[in-house]
Write a structure and sequence with these properties.
Distance between the termini: 55 Å
Number of strands: 33
Number of helices: 2
Number of domains: 1
Strand content: 35-45%
Shape: globular
CATH class: Mainly Beta
CATH superfamily: YVTN repeat-like/Quinoprotein amine dehydrogenase
Oligomer: single chain
Structural class: mainly beta
CATH architecture: 7 Propeller
Radius of gyration: 20 Å
């Protein structure tokens, strides 16, 4: 399954001309100079080590508000002080970590390439329990109310006791012959868990027992070939307040009522990177890595930024008065949410950034494929003064 899904992703990327090894393909856009509107300060930088070699894993920082947790494909897991970057603990799990961590109930949860679910003590890094789930995990789990929700590449959404790993329930959707590399991370809101599936369906379920609340087809297969009929919800899901925002590959972008499943708006769209949300807009990275803003209430287009075309851009993250995305060369781009213009640019590493940046308070946290983790903030006169004072 893992090999097949990796191969399929390569085929898809070739089909949208992301390969730079063929003279006939459109190359990724070259970065253009611009006048920066804000100054960015890197607060700290660390490493959890281990490159994932373009496997597009679901590894991304998580937080409890005071600490940043991260893991690498090489098996390292670590906790850092969110303000200073001081390493609090670090452990070698000897597992090929492929997704997570998720934080909740003072524990961390990772999925692995070999189909394991690993739970660690968030305070010490000590292993609490692990169990086999029978399939590779490519999406971070979600934890709430002492229940851990997990999506795996075999089309299943499972729930486990976060305390001892008992399986509580499981639901399954069919898996098409061709799928995108990656899965939608479950999102928990109150007693409801929502996730997307490789067959283009979005489902909402009772967290305690898995009973379905509603299901919606976000993308329906069309066309003659398996490639043309490819539909998937690989990363496009956000639950904000009482609304669900979702987008699929070869499908639609939708606004949905969390309680009823009523579709409030929809737009034809295709994305495998995902979306972000702020008070006014939904921001989507489409299949060509163009960033698009839609009105959150009505779904109407507001602007499109195409200067990052084919740069394998992450889902956008709303950060203060900016939108931030990462790309395949390790660059971070700060975008003005009002018109899509660039505000700032920084380079984290020489390797791709696959996961959307994490926002905690006034800081932005990001992880690259080689295990580099860093914190950034928008520099103000106050932060500049503090930086100079610390260096003295």
């Amino acid at each position: 399954m893992s090999y097949r899904k990796t191969l399929v992703f390569v085929v898809i990327m070739l089909s949208v001309a992301c390969s730079t090894n063929q003279d006939t393909s459109e190359p990724p856009a070259e970065l253009q100079a611009f006048e920066e509107k804000i100054e960015i300060q890197r607060v700290w930088r660390a490493s959890v080590g281990g490159s994932s070699e373009r496997l597009r894993l679901g590894l991304a920082p998580a937080t409890d508000g005071a600490r940043i947790y991260a893991g690498s494909n090489g098996g390292q897991a670590a906790a850092f002080d969110a303000e200073t970057g001081v390493r609090i603990w670090s452990v070698q799990t000897n597992l090929q970590l492929s997704a997570g961590p998720a934080y909740g109930n003072d524990v961390l949860a990772f999925g692995t390439s070999d189909g394991d679910l690993l739970v660690l003590d968030a305070n010490t890094g000590e292993e609490i329990w692990r169990r086999g789930v029978g399939s590779e995990v490519l999406a971070p789990p979600a934890i709430s109310n002492n229940i851990l929700a997990l999506r795996s590449v075999d089309g299943r959404l499972r729930a486990y006791s976060a305390t001892d790993g008992r399986e509580l329930w499981s639901v399954e959707q069919s898996v098409p012959a061709l799928t995108m590399r990656g899965n939608t991370a479950p999102s928990i809101s109150g007693n409801i868990v929502v996730t997307g599936f490789d067959n283009g369906r979005l489902g909402s379920y009772q967290l305690t027992n898995g009973d379905p609340i509603w299901e919606i087809i976000v993308a329906a297969p069309t066309g003659r070939t398996e490639l043309e009929r490819l539909v998937d919800i690989s990363a496009g899901l956000k639950v904000v307040g009482g609304e669900v925002y979702a987008v699929g590959y070869h499908g639609r972008a939708l606004g949905i009522s969390l309680d009823s499943g009523l579709v409030t708006w929809q737009q034809e769209f295709s994305s495998y990177s995902g979306l972000g949300v702020d008070l006014n807009s939904v921001y989507i990275t489409d299949e060509f890595s163009e960033v698009v803003a839609l009105d959150r209430a009505a779904g109407t287009p507001r602007w499109r930024q195409n200067a990052l075309r084919l740069r394998d851009v992450t889902a956008p993250s709303a950060y203060g008065n900016t939108i931030v995305v990462g790309d395949f060369e390790g660059y971070l781009h700060w975008i003005d949410p009002s018109d899509g213009s660039f505000m700032a640019r920084e380079r984290l590493a020489n390797r791709p950034i696959y996961a959307a940046p994490l926002v905690v308070g006034t800081n932005l946290f990001v992880q690259s494929e080689d295990g580099t983790v860093a914190a950034y903030t928008v520099e103000t006169e106050q932060t500049q003064f503090e930086s100079e004072d610390n260096s003295a």
